[in-house]
Each structure stands twice: as C-alpha cells, then as structure tokens.
Specification:
The chain is an alpha/beta fold. It has a single domain (2-227), classed as Alpha-Beta Complex (putative 2-phosphosulfolactate phosphatase), CATH 3.90.1560.10. The chain contains eleven helices and ten strands. The protein has helices at 14-17, 30-39, 51-61, 90-93, 105-111, 126-136, 155-171, 179-191, 195-200, 203-210, 214-220; strands spanning 2-6, 20-25, 44-48, 65-69, 97-101, 117-121, 141-146, 175-176, 229-233, 238-242. The chain has a ten-stranded mixed beta sheet, with helices on both faces. It starts with a strand and ends with a strand.
Length: 245
C-alpha cells in the first residue's frame, strides 16, 4: 500500500485522487466533530463549502435537522451547534441529520470529492481508520489530505495524518511515497506522548483556546477514543458511519 500526505487542498493533483482512497483531516475540529457526531448516532452529516449553502439546504429539508458549523471558531448566527465535538450526545442527536459547513474541514472534503473513496480521519479514530482501510479497501493506495487553517499548513492535521500512518503500519504493508509522509509519521511519534500540549501549541490550537473552547482540544487529543469511521457519499455529499472491522 502506497501512502502519501498532501498538506493543503490547494496542493491536490489529479494523481492524488485517481484510483486512490483519500482521508481528510481537520483535527481542530471538523473531522473530530464528525467522528463524535457519528459515535452519538447521527444518521449522516451533509457537507457544504459555505455557510449560505448549508443554511439553505437545512431550511429546505424541514424539521429534525441540525445546522452545525463555525466561522472564526464560533457558531454562526442562527446555527443550532458550532464545531465542538463534545456538543453531540446520543440522547439529543441519534438518528438525526446534520448540515455542516466549516472554514477548513468541509471545504477540504469538497475539494477531494472526485476521489473514488473518501474517509474522514482524526486522532480520536486513527486506529479505526487504519483498520477500515486495510480490511475494506486494501487494494487502493492512500492519500492523506490535511485541511489546514486559513490556507496555511496546520500541524495538528499533519499529526493526525501521522497517526493514521502509524495505525496502518500495524495492520498492512505500507510504503511512504514522499518525505512529507515520512515527516508526518515522525511528527506524530514525537507528539504522541503529550498530544494535548502538541495541539494546544499550534496556531489552530491557540485560536480555539482564544475562542474559549479549550475543552475541544482535550477531546481532539484523545487518541483512539472512538471506534467509528466516516465514509463520504457523493450524492448528496455526506459523511456516514461505516463499520471499521
């Protein structure tokens, strides 16, 4: 299995998508929140590249939907939830549909939508993602796509990609096809002893802390705390739960 890492959606080339499985990472916080929502029993998370599209789609669907997302880390006006993974609970949200737009994570999913298979990954489900790739899609090579923060590289996403590389190496024969992939793995190995501090020190982490959302970092740093994987359906573009085993 050939594994590469792409640091930003703008760096995607057709070769990163063609006949490959793509895993999207927005560790702080969209893909962590998606994992938490699926673990809470959400039916699906419909993905939008901008807030207006998410609002319009949710309004046209009628009752029972959850409008979730963020702008400058905080919930936009009129949204039911922000982008905090701890906000989802089985009692309140099981069986419901989430309409989500975020600054970085959902846009990365939109950018990679031509991939034949796309998953959402984070630290909280790194081993589950690695297991799912090896058992369900072992014939495909893999691109790990980092969402970034405001168009710049986000270290927390690179750490998340490295965590999935580490998980894959435990269950499959893996060839890292670039120095970027090697750096991601080494960065995760360096950070894994104190992931909370590693995430807190990043630009994205500081933005989350400044917004008064430090518990989101605690949640995002819980390596392998969720045994859930999201797979992206194309029409409509939506993240749904798949059994990782």
């Amino acid at each position: 299995m050939n594994v590469d890492v792409v640091l930003l959606p703008k760096d995607l080339q057709p070769a990163h998508l063609h006949d490959r499985l793509v895993v999207v990472f927005d560790v702080l916080r969209a893909t962590t929140t998606m994992a938490a929502a699926l673990a809470a029993g959400v039916n699906e998370i419909r993905v939008f590249g901008d807030l207006a599209s998410a609002r319009a789609a949710a309004a046209s669907h009628g009752g029972g939907t959850i409008l979730a997302g963020e702008q400058n880390c905080l919930p936009p006006a009129g949204f039911d939830l922000g982008n905090s993974p701890g906000a989802f609970s089985r009692d309140l949200h099981a069986g419901r549909t989430v309409y989500m737009s975020t600054t970085n994570g959902t846009r990365a999913i939109v950018a990679a939508r031509e991939a034949p298979v796309m998953l959402t990954g984070a630290l909280v489900n790194a081993s589950a993602v690695g297991r799912a790739i090896a058992t369900r899609w072992g014939g495909l090579n893999v691109t790990l796509l980092c969402a970034g923060t405001g168009g710049t590289v986000a270290m927390e996403d690179v750490i998340g990609a490295g965590a999935v590389i580490d998980a894959l190496q435990r269950v499959a024969r893996v060839t890292l096809s670039s120095d970027v992939a090697l750096m991601a793995h080494r960065l995760f190995q360096w950070a894994r002893g104190d992931l909370r501090s590693a995430l807190s020190d990043t630009l994205g982490g500081r933005n989350v802390i400044d917004a008064g959302l430090a518990p989101d970092i605690e949640f995002a740093a819980r390596l392998d705390s969720l045994d859930v994987v999201g797979v992206v359906a194309k029409e409509p573009l939506a993240v749904r739960r798949v059994d990782p085993a």
